[in-house]
Design a protein that fits this description.
By secondary structure, the protein is mainly beta. It is built from one helix and eight strands, in the order αββββββββ. It binds zinc ion. The site of zinc ion has 8 residues, from loops.
């Protein structure tokens, strides 16, 4: 059994498929420019439904992280790192994702990271690498 895939919904489709073009897509409000993550079809700041995905640079810095040694499902290779990343060009957006590194000991709060994607079926799952 493979790792489970995320469900594609109207609000999350751009986020999960943008990697097909190498682009991290973040929802943005066209009325007040608020950035919305996790993706929603309504702006939580001004309640407008005029939202659309915008391309993020994929560059960010580690806000927090954890190294996991427990294989919560058998297919999950351990140890692995989960990071919360502040995106450089998307104010207020923090993304939780896996981080892949040869040396997990090199991960640190404040370290620069860059997004990449794993293609699995019809989704492109964002993950980060140390930048
Ligand atoms: Zn708004």
């Amino acid at each position: 059994m493979a790792l489970p895939l995320p469900a594609i919904t109207p609000e999350s489709a751009a986020f999960w498929t943008g990697g097909a073009h190498g682009v991290l897509q973040i929802m943005a409000c066209t009325m007040c420019d608020h950035r919305i993550h996790p993706p929603q079809l309504m702006c939580p700041q001004c309640l407008s439904r005029n939202v659309r995905p915008v391309a993020a640079s994929g560059m960010g810095t580690i806000y927090s992280y954890t190294i996991n040694h427990q294989a919560w499902i058998p297919e999950l290779p351990v140890p692995y790192a989960l990071v919360i990343v502040d995106l450089d060009d998307q104010p207020g957006v923090r993304i939780t994702a896996m981080l892949e590194a040869d040396d997990l000991g090199a991960i640190a709060v404040g370290a620069p990271v860059v997004v990449d994607f794993h293609e699995r079926e019809d989704v492109h799952i964002p993950y980060f690498r140390l930048g």
